[in-house]
Amino acid sequence: MMERFFYPRSVAVVGASPDRRKGGNAIFCNLKISLSAGLYPINPRYGEIEGIGCLPSVSDLPDAVDLVIAFIPAPSIPALIDECGRKGIRRVMIQSAGFAETGEAGRLLQERCKAVAKAYGIRLWGPNCMGVINGYTRFVASFMRPFIWEHNLKAGGVSVIVQSGMLAAGFLMQVISQGCFGLSKACSIGNRSDVNESDILEYLRDDQSTKVVGLYLESIADIPRFRKAVKTLGKPIVLLKGGISPFGAKAALSHTASLAEDAAVAEGFFRQLGIERAYDIMQLTDFLKALNGGNYYKKAGKGVAVVTFSGAAGIVTADHISRAGLELARLGSETTEAISNIFPQWMRPDNPVDIWPSLEQHPRSLTYSVILKALLEDLSVDAVFLHVFADPDPDGEYDLFLDSIGRVEKPVVGWMIGDATYFRGLKEKMEEKGILVYDEIGRGVEVLRLLMDGLCEKR
Amino acid sequence: MMERFFYPRSVAVVGASPDRRKGGNAIFCNLKISLSAGLYPINPRYGEIEGIGCLPSVSDLPDAVDLVIAFIPAPSIPALIDECGRKGIRRVMIQSAGFAETGEAGRLLQERCKAVAKAYGIRLWGPNCMGVINGYTRFVASFMRPFIWEHNLKAGGVSVIVQSGMLAAGFLMQVISQGCFGLSKACSIGNRSDVNESDILEYLRDDQSTKVVGLYLESIADIPRFRKAVKTLGKPIVLLKGGISPFGAKAALSHTASLAEDAAVAEGFFRQLGIERAYDIMQLTDFLKALNGGNYYKKAGKGVAVVTFSGAAGIVTADHISRAGLELARLGSETTEAISNIFPQWMRPDNPVDIWPSLEQHPRSLTYSVILKALLEDLSVDAVFLHVFADPDPDGEYDLFLDSIGRVEKPVVGWMIGDATYFRGLKEKMEEKGILVYDEIGRGVEVLRLLMDGLCEKR
Questions:
Q1: Which residue in the set A248, A323, A344 is minimally distant from B322, CB to CB?
Q2: What ipTM score was computed for the predicted complex, to two decimals?
Q3: Phi, psi for residue B409 in degrees, rounded to 5
């Protein structure tokens, strides 16, 4: 049943518009990109939209389509669902707003939609949602304009489920425009009148292309079902939960009428289920990107080796490592020996490994290669935090270093400071080797902690 | 005495080099930019450096210069200081490394330098430091290459004192290359053999161009003097303290032999002195930039109004506001009324103010202008957190909005999400109005908390 929300063979857009400024046009144009046939604009006011013949109503469709997307005023929706039911349609996605989020009258209208849908066995998605994206088929049922995603949307292992419309839009626009990670399925489930996070989690369990799931939720629609869906998912989940504080909970109540569970109880529940928590929106992106990239879910120790060009930055990193519940690894004797070879006589290798004295005597490529190789081979080192100083690098020393190593097979995170002009290029080269790079020490340490948590083992 | 470290009329560089790859050349080239006369390269191996006649030794100087910068191997430094003393020189800045940071022999060497200097009444800066920058005179005594700063260094109200060499270099390169804020005095004090943070704080008290001071320290050199210097400074201080955790403290011990004070005692000490704390490097930049820009040090309440296009983002913001010890402001009746005029009938204005329904009916410029004006005039609103959705904005709606408001006179912070292509331009326009913009909600809330803390009132 859920499959055809993500892979529909035919779609009708009720409320399609020829006006390029309107959402009803954007939805239609987006769909045209992935659906060469089986796409029907429905609007009694127009003869054709974007070159495709327009039908006056759902009843005029040649067959029951896999999916109807509704973008018409809220009061007309119950009659539309009824018409869909009579036509034999079993999936309706309501992107229009004006339902439970607007108060009591809207709530009653939403209840009516549910009742009509239930009578026909229709699954309802929404209302008040931003729709769905399938990164693999480039099926985009949403009101983002095509130019935003068409050239940038990448297929990948991250699926997201967001109980919100506009946050989902902003989040996805940012992820897509920055190329943070490839998407498998992105779902904005809005008011969750019927389809909720558990329906989608159950579907994603068997979705081979989904490697990690990100959630934004203000409440759990059905706790026993959610528990079961998470336990059987077999993939890591990162949750950004809204309403975890007194002011946030009050705001959530008026947003989606979500009653905040007692915060402490909720924390314990999520921890028990092995769900990773993000507390901010960029952090959610960071975590999803990290889990999408790696095979680090096996249980690891807590020992981090820090490689720095600055004693001070090494200390700040050690402070963050302590705070995250990680440890500074004790370097093995072979590592100490290998590093000693490139260190001046007076300097005993320690952790954090301060490479400045070596950088004064040897090329940067040599220093970084020798030290990173020794640390990656050291069994007492579970992960590496690598500081890099971005500067013009006319001799391509960082390239030489990165060319000398393979893709890293332990969690390695980079922190970058220096001339911001050179950040992007160096970051991209490091990320090709599997080294995720951040501009703030704490962000990098949080990602290391995540990668070292042995996520899947907890379930 | 300290004044001439920042405004020297004449400088000799011992260890100046004609080799453009060497630090001794970079130091000299940097100084040439600000000092048209009174600059002396000293190196017995060369006849001239960068077009200026080279002297074999300090004794050959025509007069006692205001400042000698030493960049020669550590073992030769005590004899150099003695020579300076005989010449009548009273300020020596040792940028060379190889002293206390290298172990016992280095520590003894550093003690010898101190003793020689003391005998002549010489003030020693360093050793093992990155030197000093004066943003106003463009006097740069450091080994950064000129192209990094020459076109980007801006004069401004931020002074920084950093107990580190390479972190200072990286931090300053980043601040300069990103144009985060203008610099007054930037000081890397290294091993602090003589000149320490209190000397500089005492100097900065009367330095009119310094509006806020940033510190990176691993320990306080002289606690009673530091306390007095902070109490009499009359300007806000933001401190990033290294070694505040067990692993960090251990690392600090081997870095600058700094014995970490008992963490809890130190926290109380800094709080008592009204010092603001940063816990990461970008956060230090955020805080300095915010305090440099504003006149918000007067005591304010805790009430924040949140303006958002996304209920979910509003809730996440409310969670961060709770966590930071701030509150959601109760909107006054005039504000509620003004907002009601542009809201649909069914929607009662609340805080967070979810402007999505208004955005569907009115131009973005109108929605933002009406709401921001109402909130800025509302006496129960102490600060505003403004969410903006970055997108192509073909009608220049954000420009229209920003043109319609003056420079904001309450703390207003922005959070931006959407298509990253448009971040930079919109951020710059907002910052011209005094609205600082961040890409993570938590970062923005931390800055609001800082601005609302009533910093100067605490002293």
A1: A248
A2: 0.93
A3: -115, 10
Asked if the bond preceding B352 is cis, omega within 30° of 0, the reply is: yes
Say if residues A240 and A218 touch (Cβ distance below 8 Å).
Answer: no
Token readout for B317 is 């913001």
Domains of chain A (ranges; CATH) run 3-293 (3.40.50.261), 303-458 (3.40.50.261)
What stretches in chain B show pLDDT beneath 70? 254-263, 294-300, 454-459
Cα separation, A389 vs A399, in Å, equals: 14
Reading across the β-sheet that carries A67-70, which strands appear in turn?
A39-42, A11-14, A67-70, A91-94, A123-125
A239 has which bridge partners?
A215, A277
Q: A362-376 pLDDT, tens per residue?
A: 999 999 999 999 999
Q: Closest-CA residue in chain A for B245?
A: A319
Q: For an interface test with A, give the residue of B164, B187, B189, B319 to mutate (most A CBs within 10 A).
A: B319
CA distance B272 to A216: 40
Contact B238, B214 (CB under 8 A): yes
What count of residues does chain B have? 459
Look at B417 and A174 and tell me if their CB atoms are within 8 Å: yes
Predicted local confidence at residue A187, as pLDDT: 96
User: How many other C-beta atoms can be found within 10 angstroms of the C-beta atom of residue A208?
Assistant: 7
Does residue A24 have a pLDDT over 80?
yes
Which of B279, B311, B419 is opposite residue A255, by nearest beta carbon?
A: B311
In angstroms, rounded to a whole number, what is the distance separating the alpha carbons of residues A97 and B364?
18
Tokens of B346: 């069914």
Q: Residue B247 carries which side chain, given as an amino acid letter?
A: F
In this model, does residue A459 exceed pLDDT 50? no
* pLDDT value, residue A102: 83
Residue A92's nearest CA partner among A62, A61, A123, A129 is A123
For B235, phi and psi rounded to 5 degrees?
Answer: -140, 150
* Three-state SS at A207: coil
Query: Which candidate in A149, A163, A178, A247 is best for mutational testing of the B interface (most B CBs within 10 A)?
Result: A247
Q: What is the pLDDT of residues B149-185, one digit of tens each?
A: 888 899 999 999 999 878 888 888 888 888 889 999 9
Tokens of A341: 């070879």
Phi, psi values for residue B328, rounded to 5°: -80, 125
| Tokens standing for residue B164 | 């580190």
**What is the tens place of the pLDDT at every residue in A203-243?**
999 999 999 999 999 989 999 999 999 999 999 999 999 99
What is the C-alpha separation between B403 and A280, in angstroms, rounded? 31
User: Which residue of A lies nearest to B286 if distances are taken between CA atoms?
Assistant: A440
| Spatial contact of A421 and B177, defined as CB atoms under 8 Å apart | yes
Report DSSP letters for B52-84, one per residue: EEPBSSGGGSSS--SEEEE-S-GGGHHHHHHHH
Q: Is the pLDDT of residue A413 over 80?
A: yes
CA distances from B45 to B11, B15, B54 (A): 19, 10, 9
**Eight-state DSSP code of residue A456:** G
CA distance B221 to B218: 9
Query: Across all residues in chain A, what is the average pLDDT?
Result: 92
Residue pLDDT, tens place only, A288-297: 999 997 655 5
Q: What angle do CA B201, B206, B212 make, to 5 degrees?
A: 60
Beta bridge partners of A240: A216, A278
Which pLDDT score, from 0 to 100, does residue B453 have? 77
Hunting for tokens 């979810």 — which residue is that? B354
Helix (H, G, I), strand (E, B) or coil at B30: helix
For A345-348, the CB contacts below 8 A with 24+ separation are: A346/B102, A346/B103, A346/B105, A346/B106, A347/B102
Would you state the pLDDT for residue A323? 95
CA B425 – CA A94 distance, rounded (Å): 35
Q: For residues A417 and A441, what is the distance between their CA atoms, to the nearest angstrom?
A: 10
pLDDT for residue A454 = 61
